Amino acid sequence: MEQAGTIAFNSGAVPHPVTSGPDAIKERIFSQIRSDLERIEAEIERQLTTRIPMISLVGRYIMGSGGKRLRPLLMILAARLCGYRGKRDAALSVVFEFVHAATLLHDDVVDHAEVRRSKPAANTIWGNPAVVLIGDFLYSKAILMAVGHDKLSILEVLTDATTKMAEGEVLQLINSDNLEIDEREYLEVVTRKTAVLISAACQIGGLFASGSPSHVEALREYGHHLGIAFQLIDDTLDYTGDLKELGKPVGNDIQEGKVTLPLIVALQNGDAAATARLREIFGADEILREDFLEARDLVIRAGGIDYTQRLALEHVNEAKEALSAFAPHPTRDLLLDIADYVVFRRA
Amino acid sequence: MEQAGTIAFNSGAVPHPVTSGPDAIKERIFSQIRSDLERIEAEIERQLTTRIPMISLVGRYIMGSGGKRLRPLLMILAARLCGYRGKRDAALSVVFEFVHAATLLHDDVVDHAEVRRSKPAANTIWGNPAVVLIGDFLYSKAILMAVGHDKLSILEVLTDATTKMAEGEVLQLINSDNLEIDEREYLEVVTRKTAVLISAACQIGGLFASGSPSHVEALREYGHHLGIAFQLIDDTLDYTGDLKELGKPVGNDIQEGKVTLPLIVALQNGDAAATARLREIFGADEILREDFLEARDLVIRAGGIDYTQRLALEHVNEAKEALSAFAPHPTRDLLLDIADYVVFRRA
């Protein structure tokens, strides 16, 4: 990962402050977004206050469990890069956290998840019915909040995104357990499942700030590539991450039968024995811990992790390249740092 | 029911064609809406065509299973009453059928339903994960379709409605099994769960046709009372309906522990022995067929069905009264007939 990060800095199409490593980038990012994060947290809390205590409770649980607030933050920074200087951005930004939280709740039901970010999954505490319905509430509430901003262009992008996301979730379900899925199909799922919402957050930040069409398009593109890179790194962390840092058991997606790019590459590029063994392990009804450790080694040796990290890096560079539509600006540097952080992060 | 219907005709605040009975009303309604229903069906089919066959398949299954298209039809008629004469109404009308279908899919997951309208519930065929995600898709798609109509007022009413509906579903879940729920709490659930969407369909019909604020408000009120009456009658049919006519097993909601008004009234008004026996039956983990038949007799004898039918009738009359804001018009007569049909129907 350290090496991948170094490549990112050297090949970034847009020059920006040189840094010494992931901790320095992280520190630089967080020192600049502290007050934005506080505004985001306050707005989430305000919007979660309902007369129905169970909704507030489950909402706080899913949204309070260590999320990065990446989507609201990107919307706020995108608006700022397009010249917005007011305070109404926080109210719109949390729309993306609400949509994201709704998908996490429904994903946990769909995946029969037991753990999310080192805590029991919401469905194990409140049961599937409550979690399905509270997911529906958070999603409806998100759209209602967005409608309050009186701009049809924002609603067009948002609802187009959520519809594509829902299609992506169905595609992923259909393809789970499918060892024959290829890179193109996998990238379509990743785009719909992750990139579309991140891209919409960036694009909507631009629309909210009444940015020029070319700036709005640049932000859309930045978010699209950032989102793909983010998910690709997530999928490598499922093989390489450490339970403590990642907040979910290593191999979680694998246990659920999700076929991601590291495995797809290994099945394509591994030698006959490795491929046969991987098919055997992933074709089984249950994947035991020692089988997972063996599979992980086979995937790493067949180059599955390297390939996926390299592809993530390419997308990070395309994300950064898109920002060349903007003149130099501290907020542009921050968005470049965030792009680098995506490939650097270990959790 | 026959008697309730007779009362409806005599006490309707707005004069409209006298009829001889439910079959005559039904025939009169259907003869006038045939071409609207055809346009609605064609639009549903068009919007269900996606690249993901499973979505089309499940969508057609849930939307093709004998629904009345009440919500799209009300939107179209409301727009017509406000003077709309074009063809774009069908595209907006199906938004309400998509939202309704999404809630049916999620309800089936929440209730662990096995049967809906005499057919296996979708979750028994495709499983809970697919049904949750395809529900999400239909809901997102509905909002996306509504955004296409370029009117923020429509989106405000629609998303306010869906948010209230989601809250209502959570409230209902919290109150299931709760024999202490009172009439006021029950009516709040009914309003949110059913009346809010029917009311939104009527109101949005008016907004779509650029009706006057007082006409739009009259339509909202019509839909609100019609929706409450519709759900009240649904709840009586759970006790009095016949499996064949109703399309779901009699006592279905009861098996699921749903406490509806007929039971609430019986628990309040029944003698001590009846109340104790009802508490015993509904407090049990499983309700056997003979217990249900006994409970049904106790509820009927304690006046639970009569009271609920009378309340439905009051709401139907309030719905009809709201339409006095409009001058006499064949579409107004049709909406009056639909209100009467709601209390007349046996399925």
Can you describe what's shown?
The structure is a homodimer of 347-residue chains. Chain A has 347 residues and is an all-alpha fold. Chain A has one domain (2-344): Orthogonal Bundle (Farnesyl Diphosphate Synthase). The first copy, chain A, has helices spanning 2-11, 22-48, 53-64, 70-81, 89-111, 122-147, 152-175, 183-208, 213-240, 243-246, 252-255, 261-269, 272-283, 289-301, 304-322, 330-344; strands spanning 115-116, 119-120. The first copy, chain A, has a two-stranded antiparallel sheet. In chain A, a hairpin with a 2-residue loop joins strand 1 and strand 2 (119-120). Chain A is globular. Mean pLDDT of chain A is 88; it is low at 1-13. At the A-B interface, helix 5, helix 6 and helix 7 of A face helix 5, helix 6 and helix 7 of B.
The CA-CA distance between the termini of chain A, in Å, is 12 Å
Summed up, the helix count of chain A is: 16
* Level-1 CATH class name of chain A: Mainly Alpha
State the CATH superfamily name of chain A: Farnesyl Diphosphate Synthase
- Name the strands of the widest sheet of chain A in spatial order: 1-2
Beta-strand residue percentage of chain A: under 5%
Q: Based on CA inertia axes, which overall geometry of chain A fits?
A: globular
Biggest interface, chains and residue tallies: A-B, 38 and 38 residues
CATH T-level fold name of chain A: Farnesyl Diphosphate Synthase
Total count of domains of chain A: 1
Classify the helix fraction of chain A into a percent range: over 70%
- Helix and strand content put the structural class of chain A at mainly alpha
The CATH architecture of chain A would be Orthogonal Bundle
Overall average pLDDT of chain A? 88
Oligomer: homodimer
Described by strand count, sense and barrel closure, the largest sheet of chain A is: 2 strands, antiparallel
